[in-house]
Amino acid sequence: MAFYDPDATWFLAQLKPNSARIAERNLKRQGFMTFLPLEDLTRQRGGKFVTRTRPLFPGYIFVAFDAARGLWRKINSTQGVTRLVSFGREPARVPLDLISQLMLRCDTHGKLLPPKLVKPGDQVVITQGPFADFVAEVEQIAPDRRVWVLMDLMGSQTRVAIRAEQLRAV
């Protein structure tokens, strides 16, 4: 997300498998604005927990351009891109409100920021560490940004302290 034009019209491009960075680089090289929202995801591999950054919407990237100029056809032949998502002959526009809200939730590199406000009683998903993908309920928030959550582990409620950056609201 190198720059942002509030008047741009955004579209969605479908990517070839594992080609997000290749497509992003080639689209930018051609002068298109792109937006690839990312998230950290923790998975267990070989007995270890591995956190990696991956696209929030795997297989897709947002591209901004002026459809009236007809330059969108060259996006379909860009390395890493399968095609622009379209309904009929013209590419389908993505609502500007959706793009702007997504951009507000991301840092300058497109990485999804943790939710700013969680409050006691909220349902959250733990995104990193040994409890990744567990759903929990916020019990208490400490001043040091540590959040106490209640998780159902082996049939009983367990209280666990988690950093706020490791939570995503449900």
TrEMBL record:
> Has UniProt tagged this entry with the keyword Transmembrane?
no
> What Gene3D superfamilies does this protein map onto?
NusG, N-terminal domain
Task: Write out the GO biological process terms.
Answer: DNA-templated transcription elongation; DNA-templated transcription termination; regulation of DNA-templated transcription elongation; transcription antitermination
What the entry lists under SUPFAM superfamilies is as follows:
N-utilization substance G protein NusG, N-terminal domain, Translation proteins SH3-like domain
Provide GO CC annotations from the record. Answer: cytosol
According to the entry, every stretch annotated as the KOW domain falls at 117-144
**Alphabetical list of InterPro entries matching this protein:** KOW, NGN-like_dom, NGN_dom_sf, NusG-like, Transcrpt_antiterm_NusG, Translation_prot_SH3-like_sf
UniProt keywords, alphabetically: Transcription, Transcription antitermination, Transcription regulation, Transcription termination
Q: What does this protein do?
A: Participates in transcription elongation, termination and antitermination.
Question: Which protein family is it in?
Answer: Belongs to the NusG family.
Protein name in UniProt: Transcription termination/antitermination protein NusG
Species of provenance: Jhaorihella thermophila
